[in-house]
Model the fold of this input.
Amino acid sequence: MSVAIENRAELSKELAAFVEEWRNKPGNLIMVLHKIQEEYGYVPEPVAREVARRLRVPEAQVFGVLTFYNFFNLEPPGKHRIAVCMGTACYLKGGGSILEDLSEYLNVPINGVTADKQFSLQAVRCIGCCGLAPAVLIDGEVVGKLTKEKMRETLKKYRENTQEALVTSQAL
Amino acid sequence: MPYANFCLICRGTACESSKADVLYDEIKQYVAANNLSEQVQVLRTGCFGFCEQGPIVKVLPDEAFYVQVKPEDAEELVTEHLLKGRPVERLIYREPGVHALGNIDQISFYQKQFRIALRNCGFIDPENIEEYIAREGYVALERVLFEISPDDVLKELETSGLRGRGGGGYPTWRKWKHTKEAVADQKYVVMNADEGDPGAYMDRSLLEGDPHSVLEAMAIAGYTTGADTGFVYVRAEYPLAIKRLRTAIAQAEEYGVLGDNILGSGFSFTIEIRLGAGAFVCGEETALLLSIQGERGTPVQRPPYPAVKGLWGKPTVINNVETFASIPVILTKGGAWFAKVGTETSKGTKVFALTGKVRNTGLIEVPMGITLRDVVYSIGGGIPGDKKFKAVQSGGPSGGMISSENLDTEIDYETLTALGSMMGSGGLIVMDEDDSMVDVARFYLDFTVEESCGKCVPCRVGGRQILHLLQKIADGKGTTEDIDRIEEIGKTMKASSLCGLGKTAASPALSAIRYFRQEFIDAIPADAKEDAV
Done:
């Protein structure tokens, strides 16, 4: 019986080498998935399928693992990634209202991406900066002791940078 | 020529996010520009603990404790203090009765602390193995390899009374003994650094501030139990900790204290890093082991315990970061030294992340048996904004609320459990009069419901039911019957869930009801109250 091989992606050289390096190590799947996410910002389905083939792991197991762990995204994130800490300390100090305000301000659902693909908004578990509560990660950088106003102010910077980039690219 | 001054800059995550990395570069630059590189050593260290006041810079031997230092302050700090010997008064930490110059130990935040696990955090550069070695690093491993037997190690750990710092509190020596006695062709050592507890960052600070201490302890565990491979299972959300661990492993291998034929003893031990991927349940040991195997992290019935049948079915010692961090110093100073600190049943110290509505948030290490009052008021400096203390939450989503009437309880594993909470991994979250206990209970249940793996019914269904009832009460639509029902479901979950997550998931709700029942009753509309007590 032949199985239709479809919807599989070519791997980059680096990724292929990484998969090869880990192929025979037990327990490699999660490490390889991390590498994929590092490269793409998320785990594209066709790449996951190709990796399943190379690691000789059933696709069901690959997607079982991908959907079990919160860290893996199956959808591409926005250009800037905002992760609002919902750890206990941040929650007590108003992290929840910052999250809601951001959702309103950016007009994006929680755990969604803005229509212009510029921002993705996520609620995340403790980022371990409880001393800076409430805190938010923007593209991996911690912004702490936030208020709604300070948060909006911070985002303006990112917005402006983005718009500048847009204008420049259009001018070119 | 030896250095005349040492300038220690905290490079933990909290300080780094307040630009301690830029500050470090600036200070180095000004030190060089003023031709001070021969006289002043600028050091990047781990967490000082006093995160509220970060970034922190300490200048030795003057013992000047600078707080909230900004990159713009670098020039003044270097030219005034390091060049001219005139401390920069405006940046020195002050509190009533203390001016932190030459008397750092007088700062109330540090007064009642006792640092064992955190002994090197804030003192050494975590990215330089020589600094760890200079503070008796790898001395314990050498002693274990050449001077004492594995049985002696177990004996010393037994004398120390060290119990698991991940929250469970199982005696460490006994865990190791089970693995040592198990007969197998392969054994493993695993470090649980999957610190998923919201509001807690003890393990991260330890890994960032003193990675070698835990690597040394893992090698000791390997030698003692007969394992040649170790895995560090660490949260992917902790990039700095991962980077420092990687650096530390590479340096340790280069110096011959890890890898093949350690120090020429014939014993080999390698350590690999495996990343978690954001599943709280993977803090449970059987789930964690499956995750290392690259699978979904769903807990498995115990026994058999991992000590006998763990990773890939082989005997596996699995300990938490803080537990490992305490071990080298126990073996250099002796178990009896460690056992002098603490209470009858709980020896040594415990690291806590003190956060929430408290003046001095930060990372603290205190002797077991300290009272919560000392923690909240002496170390934490009390509640900001003249608010009234309401409760401390310990143990995260598995723990519970502790109310003001129990502030004078001496904390150890047993007393916290008796109060309906637990030691947990070390999150201590202070709440004031503004915090609603119904809402906090709902917050925790929301967390555990989302993190429940769904394998067993009590946890999967029970948690959701409790959350639903709490939401109903929070929305002002509850009845007194709902409160009773929460307690009933909670008890069932405790008795019948498969793993620790499910067994303890109801604790935040149960303890909130136990100490603040009136608050739940007040949230119920008058017409739905029936003989409320």
Q: What stands out?
A: Residues 148-171 of chain A form the longest helix (24 residues). The first strand of chain A starts at residue 80 and ends at 85.
